[in-house]
Write a structure and sequence with these properties.
Elements lengths: L7 H18 L1 H16 L4 E5 L4 H7 L9 E4 L3 H4 L19 H9 L6 E5 L6 H12 L3 E6 L1 H6 L10 H4 L2 E4 L7 E4 L5 E4 L1 H22 L15 H9 L12
Parallel strand pairs: 1-2, 1-3, 3-4, 4-5
Antiparallel strand pairs: 6-7
Helix pairs in contact: 1-9, 2-9, 3-9, 5-6
Protein name: SIS domain-containing protein
Pfam families: SIS_2
GO biological process, one term: carbohydrate derivative metabolic process
Length: 254
């Protein structure tokens, strides 16, 4: 890529080209992901979404947002403090997500049911806590939907003691098509700028939610969907929907 392409129009052009491509290439995987989501919702399950770092942006897209499904949870390493009673100083450790046992504690704190679906987001797909969460979920009978970069994860070694990566464990993998290292626009002399995985990850999960909603409607179900709390009656209506999942979903200030 030439230096003339490292600008706003260059990023828009390159990223839109990737988005156009994945809307076609990921069609089958999106359908399979939608089936997992629809099966979970129709079985009265909760979608447990987990990621670390900037992958939490995709988790926020899945869990607890206007236009999204109500039976969703956002899991994070911060749960160790928010729900597990750990001192906030534990979050100062930049290597916390690589320590064994962290994912198991986060899992235990949310106490999921077998019908719950785990949506696990990681661009690299190799961080210890990510792989551990996927393994733990599978061991407890959950389906796992992964959002990851197959290009990146295939180019780096596994770091978990199992030798596995997220893509090796998941029932369905949505490939966000991000390049190795995530950044899209190459720089003169090496390196790159402008990450892609958030844009493509949002596209993929929203496509899956739309398709899952279609499946639920076709089966005669009324999908439990959030209305914006900033429209009249939205907040009250959402509270009524959440009552069905009382004690199973968390809605705290973000």
């Amino acid at each position: 890529m030439s230096v003339e392409s490292v600008n706003a129009s260059g990023f828009a052009r390159e990223s839109l080209a990737v988005l156009d491509r994945i809307t076609e290439s990921a069609r089958d995987e999106v359908r399979r992901a939608a089936e997992l989501i629809a099966d979970c919702v129709s079985a009265d399950g909760v979608i447990q979404a987990f990621g670390t770092g900037h992958s939490q942006a995709i988790v926020l897209e899945v869990a607890g947002r206007a236009g999204g499904l109500v039976p969703t949870n956002r899991l994070s390493i911060a749960d160790l403090v928010l729900y597990g009673g750990d001192d906030p100083s534990v979050l100062d450790d930049p290597l916390l997500e690589r320590k064994p046992g962290v994912a198991e504690r986060i899992y235990d704190l949310v106490a999921p049911r077998p019908e719950d679906l785990f949506v696990i987001v990681s661009n690299s797909g190799v961080n210890s806590v990510i792989v551990e969460m996927a393994l733990h979920a599978k061991e407890h009978g959950h389906r796992v939907l992964a959002v990851t970069s197959l290009t990146h994860t295939s180019a780096v070694p596994a770091s978990h003691s199992s030798g596995k990566k997220l893509m090796d464990i998941a029932d369905v993998v949505l490939d966000n098509a991000a390049p190795r290292g995530d950044a899209l626009l190459g720089l003169p002399g090496g390196g790159a700028v402008c990450a892609l995985s958030t844009l493509t990850g949002v596209m993929l999960v929203q496509m899956a939610v739309a398709e899952a909603t279609s499946l639920l409607l076709a089966a005669g179900h009324r999908p439990p969907v959030y209305v914006s709390a900033n429209v009249p009656g939205g907040f009250e209506g959402n509270l009524e929907l959440e009552e069905r999942y009382a004690g199973r979903i968390r809605r705290t200030a973000s």
